[in-house]
């Protein structure tokens, strides 16, 4: 058995549940986790999720077969998840303020 692999699923319907996502991706291999991302202010889904497969080959198979396919009336994007480690350093330039009087 290979390493666990997390994939990103974008453009999801806001009505998609964890069970519906799991049943769609379960045909490609064993899933250890489905995480639907919610807005921190409203608590409503943001339209994307992460699915963690127990095997990397199953994740790659799901990416190849489900990317740009219809799911609950929307064309979903499926790709390998990337780490957000240090994401804020790339997005915001560091500002140095000189508060000398």
Automatic annotation (TrEMBL):
A Pfam family assignment: RRM_1
Domain of life: Eukaryota
Start and end residues of each RRM domain: 5-83
Keywords: RNA-binding
Any one GO molecular function term: RNA binding
Protein name as catalogued: RRM domain-containing protein
UniProt source species: Ciona savignyi
Lineage, broadest ranks: Eukaryota, Metazoa, Chordata, Tunicata, Ascidiacea
């Amino acid at each position: 058995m290979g390493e666990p692999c997390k994939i990103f699923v974008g453009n999801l319907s806001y009505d998609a549940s964890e069970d519906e996502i799991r049943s769609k991706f379960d045909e490609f291999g064993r899933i250890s986790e489905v995480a639907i991302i919610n807005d921190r202010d409203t608590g409503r889904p943001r339209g994307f999720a992460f699915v963690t497969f127990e095997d990397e080959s199953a994740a790659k198979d799901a990416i190849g077969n489900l990317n740009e396919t219809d799911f609950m009336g929307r064309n979903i994007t499926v790709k390998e998840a990337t780490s957000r480690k240090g994401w804020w350093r790339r997005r915001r330039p560091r500002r140095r303020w000189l508060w000398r009087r």
